[in-house]
């Protein structure tokens, strides 16, 4: 009997939280702080989390740390939320991580955009197929940041791998997204706006039903307000949230998104929830820029 993945598909149509990975003073993963942050997300209404996402500094973690983050998240969350584990790098590494996610109890894996400098469309299909076929019991979600990839290639992957059930689409072009989704199969996949709240209204208007969020670490209620507005088709209300988060997201996007994680951790540090530490090639905010982030976070916490 072929799995339908209906619970997993339903879970993806939501705020897909990308938790940060907090670090202790000695540079190791701060497991206690991590659990506190996860409980805060769950208590705030989050029902799907992506350990080892980009906001979790996936590429700065060691393989052992990524396994620790996966296991810690699954243990802390229990049955309160679905787990979508980030996997990637070379095929054997991604396959090993996907198998570990399955053994640890995750329901899905998200395959990070391949970072190889030479990516063909056919090779993209082969890469994802090699991972998806290894874990047929898990839902698989490709993370697409490549504007050159065609929707027909995703359709090809979906035909070969029924467990490829959703797409995190992160090309900053709503018109391209609309065409890509329809070329791939609008109803075949669950479409997630992979560029978070700033792009969620435009992507929802073109067929997305979920969006990723790093901001949700700081203010779960703000992200939940946006998803509720979008689900009800109340775009004016969604845009009010958009205006509320605009400056925060502009700070994250500055300098080619150099401060994407840095700003989130700075906000959490200002609230006393974790240290501001990030790993190279990210860098903590200069002292002069911290006050603005703290002010935004404080306003949201009221």
From TrEMBL:
Gene3D superfamilies cross-referenced by the UniProt entry: Aldolase class I (3.20.20.70)
UniProt organism field: Streptomyces himalayensis subsp. aureolus
Active site: 143 (proton donor/acceptor), 168 (schiff-base intermediate with substrate)
One Pfam match: DHDPS
Upper taxonomic lineage: Bacteria, Bacillati, Actinomycetota, Actinomycetes, Kitasatosporales
Alphabetical list of SMART domains matching this protein: DHDPS
Positions with a binding annotation for pyruvate: 55
Protein's recorded name: Dihydrodipicolinate synthase family protein
Family the UniProt entry places it in: Belongs to the DapA family.
GO molecular function, one term: 4-hydroxy-tetrahydrodipicolinate synthase activity
Keywords: Lyase
InterPro entries, per the entry: Aldolase_TIM, DapA-like
Record flagged with keyword Ion transport: no
């Amino acid at each position: 009997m072929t799995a339908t993945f209906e619970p997993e598909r339903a879970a993806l149509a939501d705020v897909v939280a990308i938790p940060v990975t907090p670090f202790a003073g000695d540079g190791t993963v701060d497991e206690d702080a991590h659990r506190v942050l996860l409980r805060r997300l769950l208590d705030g209404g989050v029902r799907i989390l992506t350990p080892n996402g980009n906001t979790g500094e996936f590429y700065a973690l060691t393989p052992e740390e990524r396994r620790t983050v996966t296991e810690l998240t699954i243990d802390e969350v229990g049955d309160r939320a679905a787990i979508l584990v980030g996997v990637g790098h070379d095929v054997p590494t991604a396959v090993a991580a996907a198998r570990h996610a399955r053994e640890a109890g995750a329901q899905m894996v998200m395959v990070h955009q391949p970072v190889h400098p030479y990516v063909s469309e056919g090779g993209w299909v082969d890469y994802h197929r090699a991972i998806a076929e290894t874990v047929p019991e898990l839902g698989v979600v490709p993370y697409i940041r490549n504007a050159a990839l065609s929707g027909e290639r995703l359709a090809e992957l979906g035909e070969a791998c029924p467990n490829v059930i959703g797409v995190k689409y992160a090309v900053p072009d709503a018109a391209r997204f609309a065409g890509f989704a329809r070329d791939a199969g609008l109803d075949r996949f669950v479409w997630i706006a992979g560029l978070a709240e700033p792009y969620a209204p435009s992507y929802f208007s073109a067929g997305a039903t979920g969006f990723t969020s790093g901001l949700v670490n700081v203010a779960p209620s703000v992200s939940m307000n946006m998803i509720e507005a979008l689900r009800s088709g109340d775009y004016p209300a969604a845009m009010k949230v958009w205006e509320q988060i605009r400056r925060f997201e502009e700070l994250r996007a500055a300098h080619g998104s150099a401060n994407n994680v840095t700003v989130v951790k700075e906000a959490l540090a200002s609230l006393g929830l974790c240290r501001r530490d990030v790993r190279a090639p990210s860098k903590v905010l200069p002292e002069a820029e911290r006050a603005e982030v703290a002010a935004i976070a404080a306003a949201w916490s009221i």
